[in-house]
């Protein structure tokens, strides 16, 4: 049985990341304006995000973010407030996404073929925020053996240690894994570990214009169609 790692944003959930982030920050600032000065809050979230991306593994991403928050506000983050935001207002970010059935269809096609499924989404969000974004394309936490969030990860993409941590958690070798994503730098870095790589081009991100030298390069609809052919093997 092979294991498939799937990216979420731009892969299963189609979006323009910059547009989504701008919309998300606006909602967060407005929702928390009664407790945090909006501009300072957004600057702090941006600093915390950068710190998580650079995390060295000595603490979880959640702990790394909290350490930055304490430096900026001299207090612990109000996790109850932020959790309520992700449960309520965050749902409006669906307006910055292109919602269709392709993500759900791809997951179903992979399940039908018997693959182990891991949602390898960049762990910058708490589980609640990740669950909400999954819900935009009718996916649930229990569709996957593991869903990476800022609570359970010590690294972020494109750090190769992020993927090594996943392999350790699931007890799998990289040679038995396939990575499906849309970002050449963040997702296809798994090629260095010996994983098979599938680059989806619907929301392609290739910031450094690298050659698309991967096992498969196609749209999500093309991949779904190939999986319906019993002779096709990832």
Defining key terms:
234 residues; Rossmann fold; two-stranded antiparallel ribbon; alpha/beta; six-stranded parallel β-sheet
Q: What would your notes on this structure say?
A:
- There is one protein chain.
- With 234 residues, this protein is an alpha/beta fold.
- It has 2 domains: 3-15 and 98-227, HAD superfamily/HAD-like (Rossmann fold, 3-Layer(aba) Sandwich); 18-94.
- The chain contains 8 helices and 8 strands; from the N terminus they run E-E-H-H-H-H-E-H-E-H-E-H-E-E-E-H.
- The strands form 2 sheets. Strands 5-4-1-6-7-8 form a 6-stranded parallel β-sheet, with helices on one face. A two-stranded antiparallel ribbon has the order 2-3.
What's the CATH C level of the largest domain? Alpha Beta
Order of helices and strands: EEHHHHEHEHEHEEEH
Architecture (CATH level 2) name of the largest domain: 3-Layer(aba) Sandwich
Query: Could you tell me the radius of gyration in angstroms?
Result: 18 Å
